[in-house]
Each structure stands twice: as structure tokens, then as C-alpha cells.
Amino acid sequence: MKVSVDKILSLSESDGVDELQKHLTLLSDDQVSEYQTVFVMLGSPVSVSHGANRRLLVYKHCIPLCESGDLQTEVASDIIGLLMLETHSLPGHALATLASLYVDAIKVGEMNSGRSLELFPTILTALAATEALAYGKGKLLFVKPKLFFTHFCLEHEENCIFCVRDVPLSAEELQFLIEKILRMFLKLDLQEIPPLVYQLLLLSAKGCKKLVLEGIISYFKKQDQLQKEESEDVEVQTIPQDQLRHVEGTVILHIVFAIRLDHELGREFFKNLKMAHSDPLCPFSIALLLSVARIQRYEEQVFEFLKGAVTKNFKDDQIQHSSKFLQELLPQCNSISDMILDTVKNSVFGWDHVTQGLVQLGFILLDSFGPKAGAFGKVTEGTSSTAKTPNQLACRLGGQVLLESFKMHEPIRGEILEQVLNRLVTKTASPVTHFIDLLSSIVMSAPMILLESSSKVTETFDQLSYLPLSTVQGLLKAVQPLLKVSMSMKDALILVLRKAMFSSNLDGRKSAVAGFLLLLKNFRILGSLASSQASQAITSSQVQADVHSRYNTAANEAFCLEILSSLRRCLNQQADVRLMLYEGFHDVLRRNSQLASSIMQTLLSQLKRYFEPERDLLPPLKLESCISAHGDQVFIQEPLAHLLCCTVHCLLWNQNIQSGGNVSDDEDGEDEEGGVQSELHAILESITKRMIKSELEDFELDKCAEFSTSSSVGVKNSIYAVLVMGLNEVLMEYNFITANYNSKNHFEDVLELFKRYHKVSEILKERAGKGRPMSSKTSRSLLSLGFISTLLTALFRDSTQSREESLSVLRSSGDFLRYSVSVALQKIQQLEETGHTDGPEGQSPDKTFRHLCDITSVLMWRYTNVPSTVEDAGKKEKGQSVSLLCLEGLLRVFTTVLLRYPTRMSNFLSSLDVSGEGEAEGEGSDLTEQTAFYIRQFQRALMNQLSGGEEEFNSKEAQLLVSILSVLSRHLNPSSQQFVQMITWTVKICKETNFEDISLTKGLLSLLFNLHVLYKSPVSLLWEMCQDIHSQLGDIDQDVEVEKQSHFAIISMKTAASTTLLVLSQVGKVLDEVDWLIAKKKGQISSDRTISGNTQQPLGQQDPIEKAVTIQLGTLLTALHELVQTALPTGPCTDTLMRELSRTYSILTTLTKYVKLSGSHLTPQCYSFITYVQAKVLRETKAIPNLIFNIEQYEKFLILLSKKSKVNLMQYMKQSTSRDFRINAATLEAALQEQEQQQDQSQHRKAACL
């Protein structure tokens, strides 16, 4: 053998290869196999058959040898590389033999190591170049050998897929291959998916990128759904969640890597997501998007797409929920918020590539959709807890994403906290309530974790004096639990607050007061009342720290007294700073009762500065000391009424606590405190008596006094008036409570104080009526919400015999009764606008809610038991009746509860005691039944109004009743029997009521539309109303007599115009729904076309959406046909009608199903209507050319469609009126004659003058 090898080597080194060829022909096949080297290849030309056969033997021997594993990896690679170079020179039958060899080896599982598989694509490529080939016993044409191999290969070994990557494939072959691979996914184990996806992504470089991405996303979407269904059933778990999430994470990394290398794949990915309108996203695709966002060129595109998808989902959901018509047509939208939150939960399985995207998405949603500052800094959006609009829901979703991400991922906690705090500091011009809510939630959920980042919080404290007061209060309240467990954070805050106390900025000093008051409330001295007796605790249950073990009682007491000493300095600062202090002292006292002595002493000394100790001296208070002047400017220095209010509330609360047995063990302190209380009582009684004796002149106030804001005297008098009114109110509350229903004299004092209050109030109203240049808005009442609740109950519902004599004093005054209800209205309105009220307990949502329930019970009882028709006419002449005020209060209450306490409506209704027996109505029933009970009460009241004569009819009361019914009906379940009864009753009222009251008509019809749209489509209702309007207003052609119709008696000649606007508004909403449906259908069709390529509807079947749209439009066209023939009053009615007609034609342009009806009915009448409007209105309204343009566009598309479909659709259309410019000869001649006559007359006058 050694000789043969040497011989071959020597022959190969010679110049020619002829001798080598002769030598190799002498060798047997076994010998050739043994000498399979490059020399064999060199000496085996393919031009002769024995040379080609020898080469084939080399291939047959080398392939199994490389697969055997006996060779080193480098040697095997070199051999395969050499064979690949020589493959294209092999003849067709040799290539076919080798292909069959590979197929057989794959079939029996011999291709284990896969070292020789790199050669297989080269063989296939060379074989593909062979046009036709006879192989085997028969004649088999290998025209498409790739498809044969692909089918065979995938049936037996998925790891061989990459073999065909380098094989040239046609589009059909590539699609077949990818579809085959995607179908294999379901047959494989999860662990086998990532490498298969990797090979698939490499294969996508040839094409079918969309198919690859859709297939991968669809597979994992199904796996997620399957895993979610199985998670509900613990016993059946075929897919381990952690394994699935890890596989998804790996696949996402593969896809992102592929997109980095192939930007065409990225473009296809976004294109596919944007086109898939029907169901574009799932948790996997969202995670994939967030991972792709790490690529800089796609970052902005990803977040813009997600922002749009979030808002679109919320808007679609809102549109669908507001219409029964749409709910029946389409399934409920998948919640994108649930998908994003699922992505957050899934990211805990090592998806570090997703977490950064989640943080960015959360802040983008908060920044883009957070509350915006309206006029005068008023926030235009509500809180996250009452989110209803798409923007509010998107903002809340952003907060949820960040909160959940903060809980789950430690590496991003610092970044989230830093970004939240940065926004609190930098966004001073816009509301930051959503960021404060997020910070509060973070603190409550993980306070101990935040201590690790305490340095970031203390850095923010340094900016407190520069921040808006509302931001400071929210920030300090949010981080308050941390102050109890972090001494360093508390000390840092105190240093900052002390500096802020001397800030040149007023807001800085107010922030210092707010911060100190918060500390006083929450660092309680041992022995103070439990927080259950005070406001709702803010502390987190997760803060497992006993304050008394961390800070001993002596340290806490010294700390609080030191803060009080700092706060006393505020009593010499501006009125706003003092006001904050007075409004906060009561809450501090209730939370930290051991400070009572110091607080009462502080208030007493401050009050003495303005109190006149001489008993006979009037007035009893030095009002001139309460104002100061700077040049010509006069402003209030001491809010004396608020000082007195704070003193009264603290005194009464402390007295109430002591009478309940909660007294201190310190006798000396108790004696000192008792002395302060006695002195305060004496001062208050003296002020009461002397205020009653004082006349307006004593305060330099009378009917002749000036109240103009343009002069310093007028400003001073205005301040005095407000102070006097406030003082009287505070004294009224003090005397009422101290009387305890036992002293008739005290109640007489209350009434006398009210009379003085009323006089000043009437003077201010009179000046406002005369055009005084100051706001006519009444000053905010200083009566507390709790007192108002007590007062109203006593005035209207207290039937205790022993109190009858005392209460009769107050009940005898109609003005006082109206005043009491008016103040309740004011407090409820403040609660609706801001979420809290002034005075004690005004910041506590629970206590405010309880007072609201009590007030509502009284108002409801008073209205239902004493209707306005039986009230004294004399009282009604002086002002609004008490019953009407009660009804207005009920409307405000129901609106406020719906806005501020939407989840507690059932508790609210069940707590109302209307019967007077101490038991709530409808208790234990569901919300719909409770609501229905109260709806029936107000329905009866409205029926009483409508059944009486026009003399007894009160328009305002009827409007209020309808408004209340509108608010309450929102709580009815649309699928309930009570809801159907409500609609039936409303339709009956509208059909039978013939009061020609425009406001009542608007209210009833609005209620009807709002209810009807949740029951079924209102188009038939609109048609009937349009017929009634046409019947009432007549035809645009005066010679045409309109058939008298009256479906709804509420529509009359007087109310027809306002009804038209309501009807057209509803027409606009119907058109919005149709437009939305068409857009949905277009998206669905385009999505189906891209997936299946077939959009043909089965013969004889009509799409349900298409059918519903044509029915809607058909009925709507018939209704509009009535309106365009109606002699509507020009102005808003005609303009709105033409605008809606223009929209109708725009929609018809995209949906030409109702050609006949639009052509025969609507279009001819439209031109007549245009002529009618032009005749009535000389100015050319903008709506006319828009309408004409849309009609002509509609006709243009009909002509094009007729040509394409070979159907004459224009046979139904009347030729449009020609609107070209043309000269009217008769008009021109008349104008010329008139001009000549004028010239002749002027010449005659000139001649006469000469």
C-alpha cells in the first residue's frame, strides 16, 4: 500500500495528470475508497464515466466518514470544503445519487453530528441547475427536487431545515417550506422552538418575512391563551409557565437580533402590526415591540405605535359601550391594558430586555395623557381612581405599569423613583397629581425598599420652597410613612422647612407651614387619641415600626413643641400663611390631642390681639387691625373670621373629648387647659352679645357705603363686609352647638346673628346688581359640613317634643331655612369641584361621605314630604322656595357621588333614610333596584308637575327632576327590566306631554336619546321626530300641504326648532357610529386579504356589518328627507342640517349601497333646500359649497362604479342642478334700466339747480 501511495504522490507532482489517470484506472473500487484524497479528485475527470464514478465513490466514502466522528473537526471541515468546491462539476446522475444518499441517511437517523449537512445545500443547488434527469429504473424528472426534499426532510428531522438556506427557491417553494415549518411548531417540545425560530429567521432573508413573523407571533399567542386557560384549572397543566416564558424571552432575543441585521424585517414587522386592525396585539407582541424599541432607529416608532394603540383601544371600547347597536354587531374589544399588564407580569422571568421599554412606556403614557392645566390653573382631568375618558384611562395604565414594574424588578427601581421625583420638581406649570399618586402607591407598596433610595427623596426636599403648594402637600403626604422609620429623612425635612419659613417666596412659607402641620399630625405624643378617633390614618400596614419604640414620648413631645414654636412665628406673616395655620390646627388637635393646651393657648393669645375687653364697647373686635395698606393698595392682614372659626372648632372638639372621659392624667395641665377654655367661652359669649347689639354703622358699613374695587375705601369696606359675615356665621355655629337644644335664648341669638349676616349679604348683592366692578360670587361659608348636616336634620326632621320650642325659633324664618340649604349646596358644589370641603373633617373622604348621606336624607325627605306647591306664597316671592333648593341640592349630590364616589353609589343609596323610621330604603338589594326605587320617587314628582295646570307648572322644578332622572338612570343595568320600564315611561311622557316649554323639551328628549341608544338604535325614533318637525314647521314649498302627524306631543311649533338641533346632534352620533363601523370593516377586509388573499363574500350571504350599516343609513336618509323639505328657521338649524347632510354624502361615497334611495329621495330635495336657504339668507354660508361638493363627489364615484360594474347606477339619480356661472339676461336688462333711470334723475336735479 505504501508503494501505491508513493506512486500516486510522485505522479501528482509531475506536470501532467495523464500518467496519474492511467494509474488510477488500474485500481479497484475498494482501493479507490482507501485513497480518497485530493489526488483522486485530480485524477478523476468527469468528462469520462469512470472518472465521474470514482469521484462519486469519494463522496460516498467521505460523507459517512465525516459523520462518524472519527475525524478531527478541522479535518472533517477541510474535507467537506473540498467536496463543496468540486460538487458543481459532478454529472446529474451522480448528484441525484448523492441527494438520495442524504435522504436515506436522514430517514434512518444517521445524520447525527450534522458535520456533512453543509454539503447538502450545495448538492441541491447543483441538482436544481439540471433541467431534466433520468434516474433509477424509471425516468424520474427532478424538475423541482427542493420540494421533494423539503417535504421528506421535515417529516423526519426538523434540524435539517437550515440545509436549504443556500438553495435557490422560488416564492411558491419558499412559502411552502415556511408554512410547513410553522405547522411543525405545534408538534415540537417548547425547548426545540428557539433554534427552529433562529433558522427560520435566517431563512426569511430569502423572503416571506411577514409570513414568518405572523407565524411566530400567532404560535406564542395561542400558547399564552392555552396557558391562561390551564392556569384556571390547577389540576391540568401541560405547559409550565416558567418554561414558556423563558422560551418566549429567547425567541424575542432572536427576533430582535435578526431585525438589527435585517432592517427590511423590521419594516415588515411594523407594517404587519399596523395592518392587522382586527386583533393586532398580544402580550408576546407587546414584549417584542418593547424589546425592538432598544434599537435606536425604531424607538420613536414603537412608542408612537403603542400610544396610538392604547388610545384607540380605549376609544373603541368607549364607543362600543355607549351603543347597544354596536354591542350586538361586534364582539367586545380585547383589553390592551390587560395585555400590557400581563407583559409586566411575564417580564419577571428574566426579560431584562423588556423592562427598560416598560419604564419608558409608563412615563410616556403619564406624560402624554396626564391631567392638563385649564383656565386659572384649574385641573381639567379627574383623579386616576375615577378615570373614565380614554386619556384618563391611558394615564392610569401608565401608573399601573410603573408601579408593577417597580415591585417586580429591583434594577429599575432607582430609575423609576428618580424620574418621578424629577417630574415633581420640573413640571411646576402643569398638574402632577398623577405622579404624586404613583409615588404614594410606591411608598405604600414597598416603603422599606424606598429607604435604600432615601438620598433621592432628601434631594427633592431641597426644592420644596420653589414648588407649588399643592405639589408640596401631595409629596409630603406621599412620603409621610417613610418619615416615621427614617430619622435622617425626617431631620433633612425639618431643616428644609425651617429655611422655607423665612423664604422670600410666599409659596415657600406656605409650604413650610404645610410640612410642619403634617409632622404634628403624624408624630403623636404618647397618650393622644387613637387615630381611629381622628382622621383616616395614612400609614402603611407594611411599615412595621412602632413610633414609640423608635422615638420616646419625651422626644416626640419636645419635637412637636419645637414645631409649634416655629409655627407661632407665622402669626405675624401674611394672611395666606395664617389662614393655612388656622385651617390645619383642628386636624392637628384631633390627631395629636396632647397638644391641645399649647394650641388653645396660642389661639387665645392671638384672638386677644383683636378682642375689645370693654364689655360696653361696640364693635367687640378691632377690624381696623385686620387690614393693612401699602400705598394705595389695601389688603387683609388677619383673616379674623377664620381665626375665630379655628378657635371655636378646637374649643368644642376639646370640650367634647373631655366630656367623654378622655382626659389627661396631668392635673396641672388639665387645670391650665380648663382655664383657657373658660376664658375662651367668656370671650365668645361677649362677642356674640355685642355683635347682636352692633349696627352696620359700627363697622362703617351701611347701604351708602362704597364697595368699588377701584378705590381703597371700597376695598376696605369689602374686606370688612366679608369679615363681618364670616364672624356672624362662626358665632351662629358656636351658639347652636352650645345651646344643645335646651336654650331658646341661644337659638334667638343664632337668628339675630343671621339677620346681621343677611343684611350685609343683601347689601353686597344689591351693589353687585348695580354693576359694581367686583365679583358677584358670594364668599365661601365658614359653616362646617358636619354642622350643616346637624342643622338641616334639626330644622326639617327633628320631631323631638322637648326641642320643638327651641327649634321653632329658627323654623319660623324662611330666609334662615333657605340660607341653610344654600350653604349645603355651596359645600356640595365645593366637594364636587375639589374633592374636599373647608372646615373640620373636610379632608376626610369617609367622614365627608357620611355627612353627604345625612344631608341627602334630609333634602330627600323635605322635598318629598313638603312639595313646593304647598309652601307659603309669601316666602316664594322673597326668593327660591326651600323645596326647589332641596331639589337642586339633590341634583348636585347625585352628580357629586357619581363623580367622586362612583364605587360607593350602592352604599350611598342604601344609607338614605327617606321614610323617617331610621331604616334605609332598598337596603340589601342590588344597585339597579336601589336606583329604581328613587327613580320612581322623582317620576311621581314629575308626573304631578305635568298633570297639573299650566298655572301650577314650575318649569325649573320640572327641569331639575328630569336632570336627576338622567343622572340616576346611568346606574341602571341596560339589560334589566327596570331599564326597559324607564325607557317605556320616558317615551310615554314625550308622546303625551304638550307643555310648550323649550328647556323641559330639551331635557326630556336628551334623556330619551341617552336611554334609547343603550337599548337599540335610535334611527326609527329620529324618523318619527323628523316627521313631526316637518308637520309642525311646514314645507319649504308653501304650496305643499304637509300631512299632519304627531308621534310626540312634546314637539310643537314652539319647540320644533330646538328639537331639530337635538335630532341633528343624534344624527351626528349615528353617523359617527356608521363611520366607525366602516373603518372597522375596511381594516378587517384588508387584514383578511393579507392573510388569506380572499375577500369574496359567499354567494347569497350578506355581511352582518354591511347589512346593519345599510339599514341604519337607509332609515337615516328617510329621516333627513323629511328635514330637507321642512321650512326650518335659518341659522343654527339650517347650518347644522347642511353639515350633517355633507357628512352623510361623504359616507355614502365610501358605501354606495343605497343609491336608489339617496337618488330618488334625498339629492333632489337637497338642492331645493339649498335654494330655500339661499333665498332666506343673503350671506353665502360655508356649509352650502361643502354640501354641493360632497354630493358631486358622490355622483362622480357612482359614475365610476357604474363603468366598472356595467350596471347603470345613475338611473336612480336626478341630474344635479347646474351651478355654473351664467348671465341671467332678464336680470341684467332690469339692472341696466334701473341704472339709466337713476342717471336721468340726477341730470334733471342738476338742471333744476342751474
From TrEMBL:
Residues 6-34 form the FANCI solenoid 1 cap domain. One of its GO terms (biological process) is DNA repair. InterPro entries: FANCI (IPR026171), FANCI_HD1 (IPR029310), FANCI_HD2 (IPR029312), FANCI_S1 (IPR029308), FANCI_S1-cap (IPR029305), FANCI_S2 (IPR029315), FANCI_S3 (IPR029313), FANCI_S4 (IPR029314). Residues 53-259, 354-517, 782-1008, 1022-1229 form the FANCI solenoid domain. GO terms for molecular function: DNA polymerase binding. Residues 1218-1245 form a coiled coil. Residues 264-346, 531-765 form the FANCI helical domain. It holds the Pfam family FANCI_HD1. Keywords: Coiled coil. This is FA complementation group I. It comes from Cyprinus carpio carpio. The lineage of its organism: Eukaryota, Metazoa, Chordata, Craniata, Vertebrata.
